[in-house]
Specification:
Blueprint: E1 4-13, E2 21-28, E3 31-36, E4 50-53, E5 58-61, E6 63-68, H1 70-76, E7 80-81, H2 88-101, E8 108-113, H3 125-129, E9 137-141, E10 146-149, H4 151-157, E11 172-175, E12 181-186, H5 188-195, H6 203-219, E13 222-227, H7 235-248, E14 254-257, H8 268-278, E15 287-289, E16 291-295, H9 324-336, E17 340-344, H10 348-363, E18 371-374, H11 381-389, E19 392-396, H12 408-411, H13 421-426, E20 431-433, H14 446-455, H15 476-482, H16 485-490, E21 508-511, E22 528-533, E23 536-540
Parallel strand pairs: 1-4, 1-5, 6-13, 7-8, 8-9, 13-14, 14-15, 16-17, 17-18, 18-19, 19-20
Antiparallel strand pairs: 1-2, 2-3, 5-21, 9-10, 10-12, 11-12, 21-22, 22-23
Amino acid sequence: MSTYKIYTNGNIYTVNRDCEWADTVVTEGNKIVYVGDKAGAEAFWNDEAVVYDLKGKMMLPGFIDGHCHPVMAAHVLSGIVFDIDWTLEECLAQIKGYVEEHPDNKTYFGLGYAEWIFDEKGPKKELLDEICMEKPMFFLGSGAHEAWCNSKGFEEAGITRDTPDPLPGLHYFSRDAEGNPAGHVVEGRSQAMIMSKINFFDEEKVLNLLAANSVDYAAMGVTGTADMGMYSYLEKQYFEALDAIKADGRYLQRFAGCTCHVEDPEVVDSRIASILEAQKKYNDDRFRINFLKIINDGTMESRSAAISEPYPEDGSVVKPLMDEEVAAETGLKAAKAGLDINMHAIGDVAAKSVVAMAKAVREAGYEDCRITCSHSQYIMPEDAELFGKYNIIANSTGVWMYGNPLMDKVLGHINDETFRMRSLISAGARMALGSDFPVDEYGREPLKSIEMCVTRKMYGQPDAPMLKPYDEGTTVKEAIEGFTINNAYQMHMEDVIGSIEVGKYADFVILEENILEIDPENIHKVKVCETIMDGVTTYKA
C-alpha cells in the first residue's frame, strides 16, 4: 500500500491557470498525485496516509530564485559584508575593525559597499593604505561590477602604470595623474587580473557558507535556484565547491547553473565546450548546467552600464561587450549546441543586443531555446515591444525597485525610467524574478521582492519614495508567477516544477497568510511556515 501525504483545508494557489485554486493536494514520494477538493481525495485516504491540516494557510509552489550566484556568494561573503547604507566613514571604520580583529589574515576581502558614496572616479587606494599597507585588500562594490583595491593588492598582482586596461572604457583601472592604478577596478576582466594572482578564499569556510546559505534559502520558501555563474578565473573553485555540496547532500534546492561568465567574446566557443562537458555530470532535475551566461555591460552604480546617452557626471559613454551582430552570432552558436542563454543587460544599448540575439535565434528556427535578459533595468519602449515577439524572458529583482534619489546625479532623467515591468509583461514577456544574491542589497527573500515589484518602494517604509514610472508596478499574481512557473520555464523545467499539478515534483512553500488577500505593503511580514522540496521538509518554523 502506498504512503500518501495529504495536505488539506488550505488556500492552495496552484499557479496553474486552468485550475488556480485547490484545498487539497496529495503526494506520493516526491511527486504530486492529486490536486483538487477534499472529496476528490478520498481514494488516497487510507490507514497509511499522513494528513496535514493546513488550517487555512496558503500553499504555493516552492519559490525559485531565478537569478542568483550561490557558489560565488559562498566565496565573496566569506570576508567583510558591507551594509549598502553605510557611509564612506562607516565603511572605513568597519574595514579597520575587521583588520584589527583578524591580524593573522594574509589578505582581506569583502563585498557590498555602495558605489555612489564615491564620485565618478571611484574609490582611492590611499584610503585603504592608511588602514593596511602590508597585505592585499580587495573589496567588491554592491553590484560586484567594480572593486576597491589597496596598493599592496596592485603590487602583488603586478598592476602598474604600464599595465594596459583589458577593455578600455568597460573593463579598466581608474588612473591617477601619473597613470598609476588609483584604487578603482571596473568590471570582471580587470578584477580577474588581481583575483587570479591572489588567493582571498578559504575552501572549508566557503563550503560551510554554501551550505548555510542553502539552509537560509529553505527558510525563505525557496526550493530552486538558477545559478548565474562565477568569475571565469575561479572555475576550478566553482566545480570543487559544487562537487562537494552535491556529494554531501547539504544543498536543499534544485540547482540549474551555467559555470562561469562570458566576459570576452573570444572565449564563447571554449565556454560552450565547458558547459557541454559539465553536462556529463550535471544534467538531472536536482543538479543541471544548461545556461550560457554573458556579461554584456556593467551597472548603473558603477557607471559601466551601456546606455544610449553620456553619463551626466563626466560625459562618459560605455559600449556593450557584444554589439548586435556579435550577440546574434553568439546566440546562434549556443542555440545550435542546445543551450539556453542568459545575457546581463542593464543599459538600453546592451538590451538591444539581447533583442538582436533573440531575433536571429528565432528566425533560425530555435523556438525552444530559452533567452533571458538579465535585470531588464533600462529598455527602450520599441525594444520592450519585441520581448513578446521573440519570446525573451525579462528577468529582474524586486528589491531593486524603489525610489533612490541618490542615483539622480549618476543617471539624470534615466533614474526615473527604469524597471518598466508592466510594459514588458504587456508586450508578452514572461517576467522571471530573482535576487542576484549576493548582490541583492536589501535581502533575497522572495516575499520582499514580490512586495516591491508591486509597490515600487522600499518594504517596511510606508513613506518611502516610489520608483518612477509609478504605473509600472505588477500585480501580486504576476510577481508570484515570476518566482514560480516563469523561473521554471527559464530553467527549462516547467514540465516538472513551478506549479502545483499532478505529475510534478512535490516542491511547496506554506505561508501563514494568503498574500493575495492582504495589503501588498505587508507581504514582507508574512511568515514562512514550512518548505518542502522533493517531498521532504527542508524547513519548518
